[in-house]
């Protein structure tokens, strides 16, 4: 099954918010800086209070979502979400 998720960009704050309901984050905790990315400054994840996860990415400049896709589990690996961004 593919993961349900909903990405949105808050253009007032240049923030990408991705809600992933019913999924507990199993990656790095805390804010992660991204020096080499032309669009992403940092990201963090937090519980959404309803058994899911919210991923919050601070963007370096105004951006748009060009692709948002979910991949189901495969070959013993968990499902993945893909959010592709482009400068606007």
Q: What is the subunit arrangement here?
A: single chain
Strand line-up across the major sheet? 1-2-5-4-3
* General shape: globular
- Number of beta-strand segments: 7
Give a quick account of the main beta sheet: strands, pairing sense, barrel closure.
5 strands, antiparallel
Cα-based radius of gyration, to the nearest Å: 13 Å
Element order: H for helix, E for strand: EEEEEEE
Work out the strand percent: over 45%
Low-confidence stretches: none
**Structural class by SSE content:** mainly beta
The rounded distance between the terminal residues' Cα atoms is 32 Å
The percent range for helix content is under 10%
Q: Average the pLDDT over all residues and give the rounded result.
A: 91
Q: Please, how many helices?
A: 0
Write the layout of secondary structure elements.
Blueprint: E1 6-10, E2 15-20, E3 32-33, E4 40-47, E5 53-59, E6 63-71, E7 80-87
Antiparallel strand pairs: 1-2, 2-5, 3-4, 4-5, 6-7
Describe the fold and architecture:
The protein is mostly beta strands and 88 residues long. It is built from no helices and seven strands. The strands form two sheets. It has a five-stranded antiparallel β-sheet with strand order 1-2-5-4-3, with no helix packed on it. The protein has a two-stranded antiparallel sheet with strand order 6-7. A hairpin with an 8-residue loop joins strand 6 and strand 7.
């Amino acid at each position: 099954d593919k993961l349900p998720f909903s990405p949105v960009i808050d253009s007032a704050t240049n923030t990408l918010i991705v809600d992933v309901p019913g999924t507990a984050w199993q990656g790095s905790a805390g804010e992660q800086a991204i020096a080499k990315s032309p669009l992403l400054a940092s990201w963090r994840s937090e519980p959404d209070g309803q058994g899911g996860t919210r991923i919050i990415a601070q963007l370096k400049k105004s951006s748009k979502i060009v692709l948002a896709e979910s991949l189901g589990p495969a070959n013993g690996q968990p499902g993945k979400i893909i959010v592709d961004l482009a400068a606007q």
